[in-house]
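Continued from yesterday's entry.
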Amino acid sequence: MSHLVDPEKFLQIFTGQFEESVRKNISLHSSFREIKGWSSLQALVVTVAIHEEWGVSFSDEDFRNSRLVKDLLEITQSKTGS
C-alpha cells in the first residue's frame, strides 16, 4: 500500500475499474456521475480499488460533496496526508 497519491496513478486506478471503451474518455476533470456505467455498484468498485491502493475509504458524504474525479483525488490525498 503506497501512501503518496500521485494524480496519474489515481487516474489509472480509477479508470481501471471501467470497461476499456469508457476509460479513454475519463480525465481528472470528468464528472464521475456522468461516466458511462457509473452506478452505486460502480462507486463501490472504485472505492474498494482506492482502499486497496491507499487504505482510504470514501463516505457517502464524500461522494455527495464531490462532482469531478479530481475531487475524489483530493479527498484521497487529504486522507493520506499527501
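--- second protein ---
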Amino acid sequence: MDERDIFIWILRALRFPKDMDGLERYLDFDRKTIEWAIRILEERGYIKPSKCDTTCSACPLRDSCSFRKSTMWEITTKGRQYLSSRG
C-alpha cells in the first residue's frame, strides 16, 4: 500500500468527524501511521480540526463526546474534491 492509499482511506473515514481512537478502530492501521498521515493531510489542507457548535449542557451525546477529550478531524472542501477525483 502506498501513501496515497493511506490518505484515501483516512479521507473516507473522515466523512464524519473522528478522533485518533475512532480512526484506529475504523481503519485498523498502526497509530503512528495514522498520526503521520493526519499531519500531512492537515498541512496540505485536506483535513482540519473539527469544532462542535453545540452547547454541551444541551447535547444528548455529552457523556460520550470525544470533542472534549481529544482533537477530532474533519475533511475539508479540498479534501472532498481530492477524494472525489480518486473515485
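Residues 59 and 65 are 9 Å apart (CA to CA). The first strand starts at residue 18 and ends at 19. Will compare against the first tomorrow.
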